[in-house]
Structure formats: C-alpha cells, structure tokens
Amino acid sequence: MHLNPYGGDAVDLAADLCNRRPTSAEELADRCREAGLTLERPAGPEDLAYALAALDAWEKVVDATDERERAELANRMLAASAAHPRLTDHAGDGWHLHYRDEQLPLGALLFSLISVGTALHLVGRGMHRLRRCEVAECATIFADTSRTGRRRYCSHRCANRDAVRRHRARAAT
Ligand SMILES: [Zn+2]
Ligand SMILES: [Zn+2]
Fold it and tell me: Among 1, 79, 133, 150, who pairs with 138 as Cys (CB 3.0-4.6 Å)?
C-alpha cells in the first residue's frame, strides 16, 4: 500500500505528526503504518530525530506569511530531501512514482514524502491550503482538501465553538 502524494495523504500525515508529535521511534513507525505507509525496516532513534527535524521545517512552511515565503521554504525542504522521480513497483501492486532514493530509512523517507506531498498539494490545490485552525487557542494544523478551499477550522467541534462565540458576541451588543 502507498501514500498517494496527490491525494493529500502525505500532508495529512505531516499535520497529524506535527499536531501530536511522536515521542518514540515505535510510535512514529506505528502511526506511519496506520497512515498506510509500508515500512521496509525497523525504525530507530535516528529516524525519530530526522522526522522531528522534518516536522520543524514543515511547521515553518505552514506558518509562512505569504505564498513566496511558503514556496521558498517548501523548496528548501525539497532540495534537502527529494531525489529525481523514478518509476517503481516495489510492492507489486502497481507502478507509481517515487521522488526519493530506494531503501531510505524511515526518517529520510518521511522527510521526502512530506516535502513532495506538500509541494504537490500546494500547487495542485492552492498555495493557501495549509493552515492552522482559526480558533486562536486551538492552533491545530490542517491541510485544506475541501472542494471550495475555504476551510477555517480543524474540526466541527472548533467550528461550532467559534459559531457559539460569535453568536454570543452579537447577542451582547
Ligand atoms: Zn511506493
Ligand atoms: Zn481547532
């Protein structure tokens, strides 16, 4: 099974890992597996360190203040992690493109997957479609894969919370 970078899976995984950072290599590996990633080797502490560094870089892409800065930061991630594209059928379930070298350890694989997935998400769906929840005290990161591209909240819960608050604010005036 593969993460489909065009489908937003890689950005969703990045957001999930960023919002709740893994604290051990085992947890990192488990959560990657849950997201559909095939791990070819066990993960170690160096994978966790590498992944956390990738998430730090990614968080800067999320918090970029304009499109140019966002593109610049995403390009830096690509330069540090991606390889030339290549066709692969490593799992025997269909040919697809990898933008990374074969046999990478999990940390480096994640870095590449997140960089490429984020770049494809931004150019494919819109440069603005990566953000934090509008509820200030929430700040959860999400990738906007909605049809309209105007998603503002991480969850229904936050959307409702903000709606109630705005309603109260109006009622008070
Ligand atoms: Zn693959
Ligand atoms: Zn939220």
Answer: 133
